[in-house]
Request: fold
Amino acid sequence: MPVQDCPAVPLELRVPTEDDFADFLRPVFGAFGEPDPSAESLDDERLVWEPERSLGVVDGDEWVGAAGAFSFDLTVPGGGTMAMAGVTMVGVAATHRRQGLLRRMMERQLDDIVDRGEALAGLTASETSIYGRYGYGWATGYAAVELETARSAFRVPPQAPGRLRMVQAAEAAGPLAEAYERCRRQRAGTLSRSDRYWEQKLRDRERRRNGASALYVVLHEGADGRPDGYATYRVKSAWNDVGSASTVIVTDLVAADHDVYAVLWRYLLDIDLVTKVVGQVRPVDEPLRWRLVEPRRLRTTGLGDYLWVRVLDVPTALGARRYAVPDGLVLEVVDEFRPASGGRFRLDGGPDGAECTPTDATPDLTLGAEELGCIYLGGVALRDLAAAGRIEECTPGAVARADALFTTTPAPFNATMF
Ligand SMILES: CC(C)(COP(=O)(O)OP(=O)(O)OC[C@H]1O[C@@H](n2cnc3c(N)ncnc32)[C@H](O)[C@@H]1OP(=O)(O)O)[C@@H](O)C(=O)NCCC(=O)NCCS
Reply:
């Protein structure tokens, strides 16, 4: 019998107070291999925790379920931004799993997000099997790439006015935040990063290094002296019988323009004693490939999902983004988990603006909330979802028209793990 149906067990959904912090997070730490979280781990999580956005399940006096949310701005196609609840800190104690606790927290959390006036929620998923049922869809992908430095010649040497400068991680928050802020509207899917995010990231804890070095930060400053790009990376040192075989692991790289982007990659590929550069989380359309004399040498070693998006207010969310071509369609959104967020909507959009309103007109397409999350940022093609039986085309040609509308270049991308 599900625990919540058992009268002997008083299970309660509760918003934690500051004092509950360690107990509230125990199911999450427990699920991720830290049954007795260290003071350092707790301190790092507390830094970014938003207690009023959190909610947990208490069994007697024990916290057995947790779900939190961070406040983000999400870049949408066209370069505008939307408030997005970034769902995080989700876990259920192993003693209470598969008894409906996550479902209860997800229901309440989505209501809370709507009450705050946010049209979107998003998350990064530990498993792709969990969140579709709650209306979240795989919205951005990432590629893991690697390149042997010896085969990394560029077709044309990159040039950008300005200079590269090494910065100590402890002093990097200001310039990195400034460079990131200049870049974050370039790609749909990119999330804002708070001062606390940077502080937490740049603490650069040993437990986050996976045996590689401390974090290196290289900053690019433009001719005006302002930061306009950076790369953060680690070095994994290795030696063999002929010499060094070290790897540079790029953890983040952004640039305000294509030339600065290329200068940063060139810098990484030219570091002495390094034979391979790995980009752990790069866009699926990583631009570096097309700079290379040997583009095949940039090997894609992994492809996967990153940001999952959940649309809660269809007119607001669809009206806020821009579309590749001018067109209009009627969408029937079937939202099984949260019917109040579904309905039938007429979307008229184009490169300069969009309007989305409820309608009674005959639908051109019928899709679920999860599928709407997949297509929202333009990162998943409707034709692929339709081919998988996940979108119904009611008007012949509507899938192709919707793809022409929703498609986004460059590919949507987010590299902010939360
Ligand atoms: C994922 C997790 C929070 C699920 O909690 P839970 O309370 O067991 O989930 P529920 O009982 O509410 O299950 C809800 C539904 O999701 C399904 N489900 C839950 N977790 C699942 C998983 N990991 N894989 C596949 N299905 C899952 C259940 O079968 C159930 O399906 P139904 O609605 O069709 O019956 C829990 O397993 C956990 O803590 N996992 C480890 C930590 C983690 O991965 N957290 C998520 C971070 S993004």
Summary: The two ends are 34 Å apart (CA to CA). The chain is about 25% helix and 30% strand.
